[in-house]
Amino acid sequence: MKKISVSLVTERQRFSKLLRSCARNWLTDQGKQVHGSLLKMGYGFDMILSNDLIDLYGKCGTMEMACEVFDRMPERNVVSWTVLMCGHLRQGTPRASLLLFRRMGCSEVKPNEFTFSTNFKACGFLGIPENGMQIHGMCVRTGFEWIPVVGNSTMDMYLRCGRLKEAEKVFNEMPVRSVISWNVMIAGYALVGMGDKSLVLFLEMQKEGEMPDDFTFTSTLKACSGLGAIREGFQIHAYLITRGFPIFSQTIIAGALVDLYVKSGCLFDARLVFDHLEQKSVISWSALILGYAQEGNLMEAMDLFRQLRENNSIRVDEFVLSSMMGVFADFALVEQGKQMHCYTVKTPFGLETSVANSIVDMYLKCGLTEEAEKHFNEITKRNVVSWTVMITGYGKHGLGREAIHLFKKMQVENVEPDGVTYLALLSACSHSGLVEESEEYFSRLCEDRRIKQQVEHYACMVDLLGRAGRLKEAKKLVLNMPLKPNIGIWQTLLSACRVHGNLEMGREVGESLLRLDGNNPTNYVMMSNIYADAGCWKEFERVRESAKMQGLRKVGGCSWVEIDKEIHFFYNGDERHALTEEIHEVLKEMNRRVKEEVGYAYEVRFALRDIEEESKAESLRFHSEKLAIGLALVRGGMEKGGTMIRVFKNLRVCGDCHEFIKGLSKVLKKVFVVRDANRFHKFEDGFCSCKDYW
């Protein structure tokens, strides 16, 4: 009898080992086979093996199976409850973990430190401090408060929920702080944009005799990155070298260094660290690739990505695929985006929801809404991001009704919108002039206690009211909103004042804006434009002179067009292209035809004031978007019918170019699509989809 008992224990241990191995390596099918064997052998209700099965299915993403095993258990212990909560958390459903925690409270099983830690994480992910505070109270009553894993996760929860004082209180009252405790606070401050406090703590921990570890350095470098504190970043880099720290063998720290240098515009230093790495992590590759792309060096970015694909020792994961798709989306590189799409299908991560979302986003930003809809409908596991990406895209294309329809469909499918979804919906309503609908959804947002309203939500309403000419209501909303207005919301109101010619309010808002943010060239440009439109040239000169004295220059306009899989970039007045003469000739001819056939005249108020009228017209003729269109026409775009011409610009398209392209679409009977910083403009037969408000 004793031998049989030992045999059974040994067999159970063997099965437990197998299941844990499958869980570690995400071997779902093999795990299911082991599960089948357990059922046949009568081990289906064994508590320890059932716990292992729940852990396996939770880690492999098959939560339905995990819940099924849990529900069939005749007896459960604290591990049973906790591993299922961990599974929900891992699969991005933290609310399910909290519901399970509440259900556990009605059972006879008491939570342990890992149960509390898991649900603190759930509260942190959801940004629900109230639930977290209740759980914190339970920890205090049950004596778990000062167990390190509980204390650290409590701080993390408060930091993620923006409750800094509570997090600091827990940290300061901890009887014993480990390096993890310091790391949680340093990383938390960096996460909420308070990197300066991260740097202070980094110095404090060393004064108290606690040595930083890999995670400390990584978090501190991230704090430097967020602050743009390149000097402090250099100092930490030097500290690591002088202490003999093996930077180039520590991929996490090296990756943070590469990321810091990339975000600080120090690509030479980033490449230097990258080239010396013994093992290049996928994070380092993606950071450098994105750095080159953001600097406009697409050739180098593409070459690095090619090297990454050819490097068999590194698996291109969903983050890299999504990041590269994001590069093609931002630069509207249709052909390269399609090639990347084909490549992702062949990878193990091609069906990941995050990758699918980035594919949909790419097609939307390239102006291909039908392609985006097709691939959106093919996503097997749509999450809130999937729906939000599509709603955002509809908004950028001026398809507000479609955005509302999709929002309603999302709710029918029991996907809860978050703050970003509401922001996308309000923006879509604003771009389409849907005032009543926007007011309805804004009211819903304010009533939804799950979601914390942000300044950006109010900015959308200000934009909507501004578009409708309801400037007094817009200003009243800004002054009475429960949050502190940021620079962007004042800029939105100022833009509305300009569109509707309200100089009095525009002067008041503009002067306030310059006092709030006097180092931003955009504010000076907006203010000078209002004065120019009203013919107030003295005020115009005063604002412009003030900007000059501070050495401020506005960002230059840049447009690009893709022709035969090649990208051509243009700046205002650019003469570097090999076909410059041909481009100038075709634009002169188009100007003549549009002027004669539809009555177009240069909007010289969009040119510099201190040049002659003839020169103003000349400067407007060669704005970057016109040059890009000119090249497209030179390279075959003059043919009747054919494909539409797509042009992309980094800034808002100016009023003169907008009028010119409207006229050109009528004269040539051709469709032009222009994506600027605000939205898509579809020009057809003399009209624009934005209805002349953008």
From TrEMBL:
InterPro entries: DYW_dom, E_motif, PPR_At4g14850-like_plant, PPR_rpt, TPR-like_helical_dom_sf. One of its GO terms (molecular function) is mRNA binding. The keyword Repeat applies. Pfam families: DYW_deaminase, E_motif, PPR, PPR_2. The keyword Repeat applies. Keywords: Repeat. Residues 599-694 form the DYW domain. PPR repeats lie at residues 46-80, 178-212, 281-315, 383-417. Gene3D superfamilies: Tetratricopeptide repeat domain. One of its GO terms (biological process) is RNA modification. NCBIfam families: PPR. Belongs to the PPR family. PCMP-H subfamily. This is Pentatricopeptide repeat-containing protein. It comes from Actinidia chinensis var. chinensis (Chinese soft-hair kiwi).
